[in-house]
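Section handout 9: paired folding examples.
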Amino acid sequence: MSARGVVTAFLAGAVMFAVVARQDTGAATAPSGGAVRAAPLQNPDGVRPGLAPVTGGDRARAVRLIKRLRTAPMGSKAGYSRARFGENWADTAAGVPYARNGCRTRDDLLARDGENVRYRRGSRCEVVELDLRDPYTGRVIRWSKRRADEIQVDHVVPLSYEWRMGASRWSRAKRERIANDPLNLMPVYGDANEAKGGSGPAAWLPPRRKVRCAYVVRFAQVALKYGLPVTRADKAAMLAQCR
């Protein structure tokens, strides 16, 4: 084998080792600067970063997906609390990506979507600094843990919405899964998340118009995965964003 061939084989082996090591740990990994964000139809498990716009022929696929949603009247919020969905960002949920990898869910999601991610010294999990291109507003946030609330991890389908649409009758284990499923989680600008609250798409959509179809597709993906209906008004608003 030539010297060039030896170098090529060595580099290929190193890349393969890195991929295997990453899969073995199960930890979320930070994208490099300028990483391509994933559109929701190409990201059905929620393990790729961001929320890229839905374009071209994918808009017709998005409409077909949303049409599969069941509708139901919104129920009562009585009995709801965050604690009904398990401990905040617990690593104990079974059957979702990143679960039981030794890192809190919030840190997994910050690492998934952040750029220039830095960890606390001695930790492979605790994120202390990053840059985030917020999918909801388009702003770039230079974040550090000293300003923790500037980035919040949004539940795309809010937990209180889930409760009112049927999660009140679920097992605690299923509620814990949806609360920690990366498909349902998006690090975003804190003020945008607080403006959204527990609203469905008929009452709130991202300020950045170009990702609104992507947002409602992700909302639909979560609802379909967990068998949740949406209100008739929310389904109509979702369809309108992708037509």
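Moving on to protein 2 of 2.
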Amino acid sequence: MIGIYQESIKGIPCLHVVDQKYAGKARPAVIYFHGFTSAKEQNLPIAYLLAEKGFRVLLPEALHHGERNDGLADDKRQLAFFEIVLKNISELDTIRKYLLENQLLKENALGVAGTSMGGITTSAALVRYSWVKAAAVMMGTPKLQAYAKQLLQYVENNGKSPFTQEELNKLFEKLAEIDLSAHMKALNDRPLMFWHGENDKVVPFEQSHSFYHAVKPYYKTAEHLQFIGEKGREHKVSIPAMHRATDWFEQHLL
């Protein structure tokens, strides 16, 4: 039987999904980050599929979302997009340490995945943490700086940017450090899967697709890199995509 438990890990609200027979045992784990304006509960379908395979799954709540929604207006939350991503990356390490301290993680077999903003978090985490053993980016972009420029352009087209030039310079300095497209060697042949709807109007399909072709030469093991484009699909993860991501982790993490 699959159990779903509410936990607070150092103040981070999480859903902990695992087969009850593995409740207190060390297991391969997947940490799955939700998308912008979403919530951890919306990723329960893929968490269930992963738990059925034998994974321990943690679904964290992102800053300014769900249980952590502090009443921030939607326009203000949009401007905090990269603050949220950076917070996700920091909290990923906190969740990993919790798993290790409680002997819930098997042999550092830790995978990371996410939808949209969660996929962007996943891409950046691969730069920051060498202990991420496998990853799945679901309609996210590994081109952090390019995407930030796109969002900034959108803000400026809808009114004057609220950021000073100094603030922008500091933001892009931080993003440059975790932009996977600028640090492709950091992947070090680790299993990485991309799924993206070809008609996505929120996170550009072309950013992940072009990155996939650019990073291919860095992979010695061809089976460790996969790109799945879904025709006709917009900015929503399909059920077949969830199964493909589950199979990916089963193949590379169990």
